[in-house]
Specification:
Elements: H1 19-34, H2 49-80, H3 109-140, H4 146-155
Helix pairs in contact: 2-3
Amino acid sequence: MGASASIEVNRRHRRAKPDRLDVPKLLTMLWRHRAGERKVWSGVRVPSIADEARRQLHRALLGTQRDRTRVIHRMQGLLAGWGVRLTLPGDGAPQLEQVRQGEGSPLPPALRARLHREGQQAHLLTAQLARLETERREAWRPSEAPAVEQVRQLLA
């Protein structure tokens, strides 16, 4: 069994600490904490189930934003490999038939097909973001909590 991460270990002696050494050290740290020493360890506040449930929508929103950004950057990277620098619209769907390489020739069909698939993915993620934003606004609308009012002001 590995050593507890919260127990002080002399870094010069890199070795696994057996559990029989952990118990006396943990008791000593507990006594120090009870005596008033505040830097022995820090406590963790475990969120309630309701708090954790409330965070899921925000986490989904952030994850979807990251996914869309990743897809758009991947498309820009694919285009840059062919000497094309293009600012993609928010939904990531450029007019691929009009895009030309540096010397004026059109993009290869396989690349256009891949960019089209990536553009569809970006479009789906943009639509999902819009739905999540709407869901978030609807969730905040009925609440009268002061923190929610501050969020409303920040979003406005």
